[in-house]
Amino acid sequence: MSNMSADVRPLVAFEPARVVEAQRLIERVKRCLSTDRKSAEAGLSQLTDLFRSEYCVAPSAERGLSHWQRRRVDQYIEDNLERSIECRFLADLAGLSHSYFAAAFRISFGESPRAHLIRRRLLRARAMMLETRQSLAEIAIGVGFADQAHLTRHFRRLFGDTPAAWRRASELGRPPERYAPWPTTSDVPSVSAA
Questions:
Q1: CA atoms of 12 and 25, how far apart (whole Å)
Q2: Out of 18, 57, 115, 159, which could bridge 111 as a Cys pair, Cβ 3.0 to 4.6 Å?
Q3: Which SUPFAM superfamilies does UniProt cross-reference here (predicted)?
Q4: 102-132 residue pLDDT tens
Q5: Is there a single domain that holds both residue 149 and residue 184?
Q6: How far apart are CA 129 and CA 147, in angstroms?
Q7: pTM of structure
Q8: For residue 10, is pLDDT > 60?
């Protein structure tokens, strides 16, 4: 136990002047609480402002999205791949402006919201090609592309060949390396979850 206490550091360090000011406000609130409720509320408001000014840092796109924002946006994308998803709506989900969201998203995911959405659609389409007998046109519509040609254009760009050629190769066994990246359970969403 004594070894642990040597490694413990305070999570928050207060400036001495702020501590004195906070103590003064707390004493004022305690004095006024029973006699002057309005003054007590004003003191609490000032105390809140003191802590807010000291510890509420303005968000920075340089840090990316917070964990809850990332999870919320990512889950929405996953649950709605077949729909039209606008960046402005995702920004609203995260409670951010469009421009701030786009910058923070890029830092968090390593790609733009649009590129991320397309990649997720392609991964889902690839999983569906492996797991179902649906036509490529049905798969394209099912994952949010306008049509099979739209799917094919993006699929070729990311995987180096057409969906039809990739599907044929996968039916013969593991596709050649030029079709990499081969889907793994970690990067391919389950078709049944869709």
A1: 19
A2: 115
A3: Homeodomain-like
A4: 999 999 999 999 999 999 999 999 999 999 9
A5: yes
A6: 15
A7: 0.61
A8: no
